[in-house]
Design a protein that fits this description.
- The structure is a single chain.
- This protein is of the alpha+beta class.
- It folds into two domains: 1-74, Arc Repressor Mutant, subunit A; 75-133, Ferric-uptake regulator, C-terminal dimerisarion domain (Dna Ligase, domain 1, 2-Layer Sandwich).
- It has five helices and five strands, in the order αααββββαβα.
- Strand 1 (59-64) and strand 2 form a beta hairpin.
- Helix 1 crosses helix 2 (26-33), helix 1 packs across helix 3 and helix 2 crosses helix 3.
- The longest helix has 14 residues, at 42-55.
- The chain is flat.
- The model has no long low-confidence stretch (mean pLDDT 90).
Length: 133
Amino acid sequence: MEARKFSKKRAAILEALRATDEHPSAEMLYAGLKGRFPDLSLGTVYRNLAMFVADGDAVIVGNVAGQERYDAHTAPHAHFICSCCGAVLDVCSPSLSGLDRQVELETGGRVTARSLSFTGKCARCLGTDGRTA
């Protein structure tokens, strides 16, 4: 990782990403920061997000409703993406911890990164009891 020149906008984008568990898109971050930084451009947000991903400070969760979504929680975990409302939820099940080793045993390879997501309807879209409508 190369040393980066300090930028108030860059710091604010990373702070906003770290402060939420909503797995925002660039557009969501831009909308939230535009009031504090009137001269902020959407391109600046995209460039900084790409840099955060390259530097290991963020991960791309996936494309939800046509927009890439990001996560500053970079420890290995999966995501659940609601196909109804677009919510992205962290899945930190202990049973996922052995998955890397299982894949290595099955393939003879070495896992260096993982991206795992599940798609379905979240509890809110199903109703609080979890039953399908």
